[in-house]
Amino acid sequence: MLMRRARCTGSNELGVSEHESSKIEMEGHKELGSRAAADVVAAVLRPEIRALSAYAVAHADGMIKLDAMENPFTLPPAVRSKIASTVAAVPVNRYPDGGARAVTAALRATLALPDSLGLVLGNGSDELIQIITSAVAKPGATMLAPEPSFVMYRLNAIYAGMRFVGVPLTADFALDADAMRSAIERERPALIFIAYPNNPTGNLFAADAIADILRMAPGVVVIDEAYYAFADASFLPRIAEFPNLVLLRTVSKIGMAGLRLGYAVAATEWTTELNKLRQPYNLNALTQAVAPLLLAEGALLAEQAAMLKAERARLHAALATLRGVEPFRTQTNFVLARVPDAPRWFDALREAGILVKNLHGSHPLLDHCLRITVGMPAENDALIAALNALR
Ligand code: PMP
Question: How far apart are CA 352 and CA 346, in angstroms?
Fold first, then answer.
């Protein structure tokens, strides 16, 4: 009672106002708090997590953005207004549909999936890589992937506490079948990731070599078809052949990177289990409303992919004419090219307002390599002009 009265009067024994005294107390706590936080972090965090740096996303404001394999097309006005009215009606005060039924139905129809195959939807295929990894990460379990490949495989092995074994590709970026076979026999990996086509090299591995891996692997093999829209081959029609195959795709490269939607297709025995690891509302309400509208635009998406493939051929040919530049064959929406001095060329392109990805130093096979996403014709022209000016 007394205390309460003292509070009400707004002062204390030292004559400092209550407001000031609580400020002092708070600051004391903050100091103590930050010191303690650092100590607690050091004591409890897994050392492999402390050793990581957060995934860096380059700032690209005002630049020609050719670094992240996005689709460069903006949407036609009619599609935009359909999206606008659909989004306006979304009840964002409610949780989204936990089963994401509209997106599931749209994908099942688009892919013509038989009942024996199930789907797992993710907040980008990045989330599905994490879900699949955590599902098999028993103590001591190993993840295996050819390298160089998509960096999130290795990172997710670290997140889940799995051992990671990278098997180098050959110098021309093919799967090294012998090295893969002996690594699989030696390591008995619970999980193998194969990007088909591969990022960052851009090529499609031999289907026979992948089928051999599927047959000899003791665990699950994820074939990651993030770039399927630009490739001439897919394992989608062959899923039933392999009981250990999980196929991964994303809509990020076909014009919906901002929606964050990836999907895994596999036998329902797999998808039933993997769906248990999904957070209940991992696909937000706006994505669930918009994705089906865009998936219904099959002709538009196909036309954009065809235009990007034509631009890819033009960009590849232009790069091949530059002295000292070796563009590698690609079945994706980017071109990997070896240049005489990648760090210098990367900087010069950035100065010219063009952002690409410098892979020099990330793997010995990628010495002096730049990864260039195929953009709009004018963007590709700007890139070619900047490279010409560089020589
Ligand atoms: N797999 C591969 C091979 C990729 O290159 C990428 C994106 N760079 C992803 C998966 C992740 O795509 P998202 O999370 O946007 O679906």
Answer: 10
* Residues whose beta carbon lies within 6 Å of some atom of ligand 1: 69, 124-126, 150, 195, 199, 224, 226, 250, 252, 257, 262
Res 26: pLDDT: 52
Q: What angle do CA 101, 103, 104 make, to 5 degrees?
A: 60
Mutation test of ligand 1: which of 252, 332, 359 has the most ligand atoms closer than 8 Å to its C-beta? 252
How far apart CA 261 and CA 240 sit, in angstroms, is 24
How many C-beta atoms surround the C-beta of residue 126 within 10 A?
18
Output the CA 71–ligand 1 centroid distance in Å. 13
DSSP 118-177: EEEEESSHHHHHHHHHHHH--TT-EEEEEESS-HHHHHHHHHHT-EEEEEEPPTTS---H
Which residues of the chain, if any, have pLDDT below 70? 1-34, 391
Write down the pLDDT at residue 54: 81
CA distance between the termini of the chain: 83
CB of 253 within 8 A of CB of 227? yes
- What confidence score (pLDDT) does residue 11 get? 40
Cβ-contact 233, 207 below 8 angstroms: yes
Q: What is the pLDDT of residue 57?
A: 83
> Contact 96/285 with Cβ under 8 angstroms?
yes
Beta-bridge mates of residue 168: 147
Tokens of 209: 């070599």
pLDDT value of position 56: 79
* pLDDT for the residue 34: 59
Give the other-Cβ count within 10 Å of 239's Cβ: 21
Q: What is the pTM of this model?
A: 0.91
